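## retry 2 of 3
previous attempt timed out at serialization; input unchanged, resubmitting
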Amino acid sequence: MVEAFPPAPSAREDVVFQIDYPGCIHDHLSCSRKLLILLQFFYLCCTMFYVSKKIRIAASHHLEVDYPTKCARPHGHNYEIEVFCKSKDLDVNGMVVDFKTIKERVTDRLDHRNLNEVLPFNPTAENLARWICEQIPDCYKVTVKETEDNTATYEL
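## retry succeeded, writing output
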């Protein structure tokens, strides 16, 4: 049991709450005790480890769209990608995910490549962000910056 959370100073000991626990009989607890239980529950259930990794790749592509645009012609970008991962628990190595894993799964597959040749979809920044998120364990968000002014984000 975590004892790091003292009861709130304004809690009144004379106020009693009735709490239902599944499978248990009713238990009467004071306001400060209930607050302590809620804080411990929040701590145990809501703590999270977060990591992010920035990656830069150079790649070419062309877009397949239903309107005329110069982006339908082959061109390239120096992409700036940021991958965000989270986990309630760390792996056996004390990590959410190894930064090397993130880099390898993105850089090795996409850097200095024609994205139309290595990806099975129209390589828009939005589709690229979703695909990257699907490749990384515990990833919940990816930002793909195609140019200084154009950024796409995919978030679970």
